[in-house]
Write a structure and sequence with these properties.
Number of domains of chain A: 2
Number of strands of chain A: 9
Low-confidence stretches of chain A: none
Low-confidence stretches of chain B: 1-19
Largest interface: A-B, 18 and 17 residues
Largest sheet of chain B: 5 strands, antiparallel
Helix content of chain A: 25-40%
CATH architecture of the largest domain in chain B: 2-Layer Sandwich
Largest sheet of chain A: 5 strands, parallel
CATH class of the largest domain in chain A: Alpha Beta
Oligomer: heterodimer
Shape of chain A: globular
CATH architecture of the largest domain in chain A: 3-Layer(aba) Sandwich
Helix content of chain B: 10-25%
Order of helices and strands of chain A: HEHEHEHEHEHEHEHEHEHH
CATH class of the largest domain in chain B: Alpha Beta
Chain lengths: 305, 171
């Protein structure tokens, strides 16, 4: 399988074999010295909107591969502020680096960038659409903690309507014959088009409204943040918000191997007392962003096969 | 078959209809060189004229709607003299009325007759209805994939949003 000069724009572009292959390379990266693999190569980090984890982990990943990094965060210091089009910005930066990691607030921007230039583009988030390296690192986390992805049961909790992370993860887990529980208030449940895709593929899923209904059934509890501003009526938010906050005591009936994951940042949806529970896995998950992004960069630059 | 036979063919379909005598009085003129679009659902006839920008057309254009059709019950037909549709225009018609018959007429003879089908990809025809899609923010041509033909469902190449037939707006 050859990923040289390809782009990573959407998890939907990857089939099961390709995902498996990338995850194998992530494991290889973790267990070998890669510190000189990208010597002399440059990663451009074009973050048109602020990011902490994604940008820093892309930069760290490239530096751990022996390469260097140029880039910006936020539009303030760029010619975009002067009215330059995304196409012009991308065409210009193409000449400055070997691979680009990009985050942009507009959906489809990463695809446009990939269509416009010859060097590889990695989508670090395009609006509410896709964030494929997050999904890959989620899958790597699950694989590391459970020894497999195939056939696991996972509950996704919180804002499932607007959360791009859970959309991509649900689709990807579907490829691995997972059983899915979607736990959310009705107004923030998983969108119909995602459920339609799961139906077409024959993926088993259940809708639920309370974490405690599912906590003893699942191998992974994937928490996300519910944002107050998603609710037109603040009283409605107040009435549901506590149902989606995970407390340590709620884990007493959990399976022994249950792992609690979260794409971070969290606000209050996981109480701090969960951090010391054996099930807490979200900081480890964030750390896996490094080998995952190292593997993706190395594959697209053709220094790993 | 020549272009006049298309009309006679249509008359033949109405032979057993009570409306035959009324219909018989209606004849669309022959096309020497141009395009005939037949088997149009009646409610879409004027829409096709609009999306093909034929409202101010400078040559002979004839259309009829609510013609009796044995196959469809009622149908519309458009005859355009002096114009051969581009691939883009044919695809526009296919998105709005995917089952029409389209004939190219050369020197009064039907030189090509096709029953339209949806292309797998639809480019520069449909707007993306996601206001935060890059095609609505920058100068980018729209591009969709047909996910399902009936009922029609298409997916934006850029933002990956899917759109049902009733939500589709043409450029």
């Amino acid at each position: 399988m050859d990923f040289k000069n390809k782009d990573i724009i959407s998890i939907n572009d990857l089939n099961k074999e390709e995902i498996r292959y990338i995850l194998e390379v992530v494991s290889r990266v973790e267990n070998s010295d890669c510190s000189q693999l990208c010597k002399g190569m440059i990663l451009g980090t074009l973050f048109f909107e602020p990011s902490t984890r994604t940008r820093l982990s892309f930069e760290s990943a490239m530096k751990r591969l022996g390469g260097s990094v140029i880039g910006f965060s936020g539009e303030g210091s760029t010619s975009r502020k002067k009215g330059e089009s995304l196409y012009d910005t991308i065409k210009t930066v193409e000449g400055y680096c070997d691979v680009i990691a990009m985050r942009h607030p507009v959906e489809g921007s990463a695809r446009l960038a990939a269509n416009s230039i010859k060097i590889p583009i990695i989508n670090g988030g395009d609006g509410s659409n896709q964030h494929p390296t997050q999904t890959l690192l989620d899958l790597h986390t699950i694989r590391k903690s459970h020894g497999k992805i195939e056939g696991l049961t996972i509950a996704m909790v919180g804002d499932l309507k607007y959360g791009r992370t859970v959309h991509s993860l649900a689709t990807a887990m579907g490829l691995f014959n997972a059983t899915l529980y979607f736990v959310a208030p009705q107004q923030l449940q998983m969108p119909k088009d995602i459920l339609d895709v799961l139906d077409k593929k024959g993926i088993k899923y259940f809708l639920a409204e309370n974490i405690t209904e599912v906590i003893d059934k699942v191998d992974v509890l994937y928490m996300t943040r519910i944002q107050k501003e998603r609710f037109p009526d603040p009283i409605e938010y107040e009435s549901v918000k506590n149902a989606y906050v995970l407390k340590k005591e709620m884990l007493k009936n959990a399976k022994q191997g249950l792992k609690v994951m979260h794409p971070l940042p969290r606000v209050n949806e996981i109480c701090e007392d969960v951090d010391c529970a054996e099930h807490a896995h979200y900081f480890q998950q964030a750390h896996y962003g490094i080998p995952t992004r190292m593997a993706v960069i190395a594959l697209l630059l053709g220094v790993l096969k | 078959m020549n272009s006049d036979e298309i009309i006679r063919g249509t008359n033949h379909e109405t032979k057993n209809s009570n409306d035959y005598s009324e219909y018989k009085q209606m004849k669309l003129g022959k096309v020497k060189n141009g395009t005939v679009i037949d088997h149009i659902p009646p409610e879409l006839c004027f829409r096709l004229i609009k999306i093909l920008n034929l409202e101010g057309y400078g040559h002979v254009l004839s259309s009829a709607t609510n013609l009796i059709s044995a196959k469809l019950g009622k149908k519309g037909m458009i005859k355009i003299s002096g114009k051969f549709l581009t691939e883009e225009e044919v695809n526009k018609v296919a998105v709005v009325a995917p089952n029409v018959t389209m004939c190219t007429v050369t020197d009064y003879n039907v030189s090509n007759k096709i029953k339209l089908s949806l292309p797998r990809e639809i480019k520069k025809i449909v707007n993306c209805n996601n206001p935060n899609c890059i095609t609505n923010v920058e100068e980018v041509s729209t591009h969709f994939y047909v996910v399902q033909e009936s009922p029609l469902n298409i997916k934006c190449h850029y933002c990956e949003r899917t759109i049902d037939k009733e939500e589709i707006t043409l450029i």
